[in-house]
Amino acid sequence: MTSKLKKKTLICLVVLMLLLMHSSLHRKVSSQTKETTSSDPIEHIKVAVDPNMPPLQYVEGEDYLGFHIDILESVGDIYNIDISYVPMPVEKVVEAIEQKEVDAAIGINFLSELSENLIFTDSISTSSVGLIVENKHINSQEDVLELTDMVITLKRDSVEYQYLQNVRRVKYNTTSNIADAFQLLEQERGNALMGDRLVAQQLMEQYNLDNKYTFINSYIIPIEYAIVVGKDNYNLLTKFNDGIQQIKESGVYGEIYAHWFLDKELVAEKRLRQLLKVFIVFIMMAAILSIVGIRWNKQLKRQVDKKTQELQTMNENLAYQITETKNKNEMINQLLESSPRGLIIIEKNGIIASCNPTVVELIGLENNSTGRYYNEVPFIRQLLQEKIGDVIEKEVQFSGEEVNWQREDGKKYDIRYMVYPLRSYDRKVKGIIVSFEDITQEKKLREEWFEREKSRALNEIVAGISHEIRNPLTSIKTFVELLPKKFDNPQFRRDITTYVPKEVERVNQLIESLINYAKPRKPNKEIVDIKDLVEYNIRLFTPIIEQKGLKVTIDMEKNLKVNVDKAQMKQVMMNFFLNGIEAMEEIQQDRQLTLSIRGWRHQEHIYISIKDEGVGMTQKEIIHALNPFYTTKATGTGLGIPLSKQYIEDNDGQLTIESEKNVGTKLILRFEGRD
Ligand code: ADP
Ligand code: MG
């Protein structure tokens, strides 16, 4: 907006300036306004003019100008006369007025022969005749100039013409006007010119003849100019004479005279002053423009400074961001380079994009695996198998997968790995990331710990069981001791044959389960009824449970057949029973706490729940408990739950843990049901 405004102001200023220049340069100095004193109707007259008499009367373009013209116009203004001019040489004037082609003629010398046919007004101007002579004819003494030696050019029907006719032996060439007389001079058809001083001077300057000709002052004849009208046109004559009289009296004549003859210097001064005005206007314009320019400039500079500042800040930010990004990239690179985990990035199309050094070290993968198709690299192929499609299309994430890998040199590795989608910043899947670790050592350690856990549980059980064995043994012993005494008692004999085998069987069972437990793990699936399994195993714990003042309830549906490894399941149950007992043991309560075991079938699945009323766990603790070696017990191993979970999963089952702090824990096992 502001720049538009400025533009407009500028345009206005320029237009103003041009107007000023125009008016000051082209204003006609002659066009002084005169007041019309008459209210007469407009009278139109035609006036003959010899236009070759500057500065008295002449033509510029279509305008008639000059001292005589201004006089006539002033007179015309008084009587409301509209004057049109007709160019005409003096010799035609008489006829033209008689023929009424024109009403008057202006700038005519008073000559007696003209006065026969025309009437002269009062004089409108006076001048004098002068002689112009070629420089070469001028001696040091002007006075001795001999007119008879020269050919003089001059205007016919003029005062000078009348004069020369009276000088004997003078040669001359006449023309109809003084301008033509100059032409003759130029054509060397004369070497002197006689005519009105004012006019001759003007024309000499006009024709650039100042250097070639000189005015001779000694030949001076006064001339009077007047306006002529027709013999009988007294009406116009009177108006002219009265008008001339009036303008002379009112001072208008003097002003016009001064303007044309005296004011030459004034005019020059006026011009100069006008030029000065224009110059000042120019200077002012320039000043205004430069002030506007400076302000503009300042504003622009301020804007530029502001923008520069903004740009600089942006640049700094950008530089900072670039450094940050570089740092981050470097950090990520270092992390990747130094990570003990192997990291492989595979593009969507299956091409290996990058591997970190761990991959190369650990797996002995060739360095140039990058750029190859993942299926061509056996290790990656084994890891991924069919997973790549699921990851890219369904965005599935695989974690905790384990695989055995044998290197080319025969070294065996246990590998745990994850496969998950690689996403761009807008969360679109760009490829996949395979991240893996060597768990060979961990696995070895884990197995060792499993063994320890086993023996720890065994110790617990043995303590309980010895008591359990002692009971049947005591009753058998009692029977045996009473045998000699009571052999003849039929009731005694019935009892001994009923109870002793039973007690023996009970001992046998206990021993058998101990042997089973101690047996090394050998995955050996068979169809079993989970009900039997639970009942069989809980028996091992009954003595401990009772000893600790706890209670067990078992509620199993019939026919809960599953395909599992008996020994592994036994281990699972024992771990969970033991955990439940230990959790309830920690609680000091008056009422008897119960370990409830339930079994049921739902659709294809068989469920077993083991619920205690022990200390319970928070959600966080549950997650911890799933990790190996997490324990809150002084003699704990932290392997019970992870080992059991693994066994369950090895048997195509699933484990869910629900627990609430200080309320209790419920473990739910789910297996595929069998008929
Ligand atoms: P351990 O029994 O040797 O500590 P586990 O893996 O069997 O190892 O259990 C890990 C931990 O989980 C236990 O130390 C205990 O803090 C918690 N935990 C396990 N079972 C229960 C339960 N039924 N109630 C409350 N906490 C339990
Ligand atoms: Mg345990």
Report what the structure shows.
The chain has 675 residues and is an alpha+beta fold. The chain has 5 domains: 1-32 and 267-338, no CATH class; 125-222, D-Maltodextrin-Binding Protein, domain 2, CATH 3.40.190; 340-438, PAS domain (Beta-Lactamase), CATH 3.30.450; 443-518, Signal transduction histidine kinase, dimerisation/phosphotransfer (DHp) domain (Helix Hairpins); 525-674, Heat Shock Protein 90. Helices cover 49% and strands 24% of the residues. Strands 1, 5, 6, 7, 8, 9, 10, 11 and 12 form a 9-stranded mixed sheet that branches. Strand 15 and strand 16 (412-423) form a beta hairpin. Helix 2 crosses helix 7 and helix 15 (530-547) packs parallel to helix 16 (566-585). It is rod-shaped and about 215 Å long. The site of adenosine-5'-diphosphate has 21 residues, from helix 16 and helix 18.
Provide a compact summary of the structure.
Helices cover 49% and strands 24% of the residues.
Are any ligands bound, and if so which? Answer: adenosine-5'-diphosphate, magnesium ion
- In terms of structural class, how would the helical and strand content be classed? alpha+beta
Q: Could you give a short account of the major beta sheet?
A: 9 strands, mixed
Instruction: Count the beta strands.
Output: 24
- Helix tally? 18
CATH architecture of the largest domain: 2-Layer Sandwich
As a whole number of angstroms, the C-alpha radius of gyration is: 70 Å
Give the low-pLDDT segments: 22-38
Tally the structural domains.
Answer: 5
How would you name the oligomeric state of the polypeptide chains in this document? single chain
In percent terms, what proportion of residues is strand?
Answer: 15-25%
Residue share in helix = 40-55%
CATH class of the largest domain: Alpha Beta
- Please give the alpha-carbon distance between the first and last residues: 91 Å
CATH topology name of the largest domain, in short, is Heat Shock Protein 90
